[in-house]
Amino acid sequence: MADSTMLVPSVKKSVTIQDVARAAGVGVGTVSRVINREANKRSPKVRRVLQAIEELNYQAPHRGRPRRTPKTEANAFRPGDSFLLVLRGGGLQWILNHAPVYARALHGIEETLSKADLNLVIRQIEDIRDVPGIARQNEAKGVLLFLHHADAHFDSTIGNLTAVRIFGSGSSAVCDHLEIDHQAAGEMLANHLWQRGHRCCAFIGPEAARLTDASFTRREAFVSRLAAEASLLVLTTPGLIMRGPEINAVDEAHLGMLLDRFCEAQPRPTALFCDTDIVVPGVYRGLQQRGIAPGRDVEVVGCNNDQIYLAGLSPMPTTADVRAVELGRTSAERLLWRISHPADPIVTLKIYPRLVIPPAEAANPIPAEPPPPRRFIQR
């Protein structure tokens, strides 16, 4: 699948709002409020942010009204206009501290809008029906929504806004939707393991709560791709990933039970697909504790390309890079395009992943064979 056409010219990488937040020791939301003149000027945090902006030479998008120019189809937004990013669930700090895929997508959004000299206002919500009021309050030209699941109020609430939904699955009748191609990721990893000679494979991950969940889609794609010609072991449990306001981590007890089942399997799989990279370090430790060497006795692969989890592992596992930065960039570009093309059909765009193969594995490939035939199985 070809990459989306860039709608904003690329320029030399500049300092981002996240760089300023780190230098000032504050959250991105605080920096956003300072930039948008919504913070108390006497606050020590504000002074640190202003100092960081000056020291890093951060070019903050300005708030002044530019000279009025006629709005045409090619000029429906102007430098200084504001755009709203809406978050649900854990909020901004949870994303920055615990969700590297979301954080990279946020970086892509911020980078794209900053290059166009546009403001990004970030807000956390509990009820989707609050979005129109927040958009009006901030005079937002458009809205980006980090939403995994659209509730019953989504269409009626978002239908009158210029908006793009990011993440989750399923098409929308009222706004464009950008998502990761999770089916392609599952199939890509299945083909990789097949081509490396594995005929007995396992999947390990959380039990999906919905049939449209990313984990379910990746698992079914992986299983369907291999089911015709390979033996498969699917290992799932609802409690594998612990998520909360201050946590996003693997439950080691649940993981241990799944690894015990893996070790007891006859025959034992020679390859193991971990649903997300956050699971991989625990799998490495658990296998080693059970006398199984990752890389030598079993090939482990992951998904997301979260180097925060994979760095330091030996051997480095292959992973499917979901290209979250590109997802963020394309989402922002699509929103800018949509402002100028409001009557065009609503679409769902999927970002195609890429395989990241560690150098040691790439230097010693197993002779490739044709991938197994595509076949879907009914459960």
What's this entry about, in short?
By secondary structure, the protein is of the alpha/beta class.
Describe this structure in words.
- This protein has 379 residues and is of the alpha/beta class.
- The protein has two domains: 17-180 and 325-353, Response regulator (Rossmann fold, 3-Layer(aba) Sandwich), CATH 3.40.50; 182-322 and 356-363, Response regulator (Rossmann fold, 3-Layer(aba) Sandwich), CATH 3.40.50.
- 37% of the residues lie in helices and 19% in strands.
- It contains 14 helices and 14 strands.
- The chain has helices at 17-24, 28-35, 44-56, 91-98, 100-115, 131-137, 154-158, 182-195, 214-226, 252-264, 280-289, 307-310, 324-340, 359-363, and strands spanning 82-87, 119-124, 140-146, 163-166, 176-180, 200-206, 231-237, 241-244, 247-250, 271-274, 299-304, 318-321, 348-351, 354-356.
- The strands form three sheets. It has a six-stranded parallel sheet, sandwiched between helices. Strands 7-6-10-11-12-14 form a six-stranded mixed sheet, with helices on both faces. It has a two-stranded antiparallel ribbon with strand order 8-9.
- Strand 3 (140-146), helix 7 and strand 4 form a beta-alpha-beta unit.
- Helix 1 crosses helix 2.
- It is globular and about 65 Å long.
- Residues 1-12, 61-75 and 366-379 have low confidence and may be disordered.
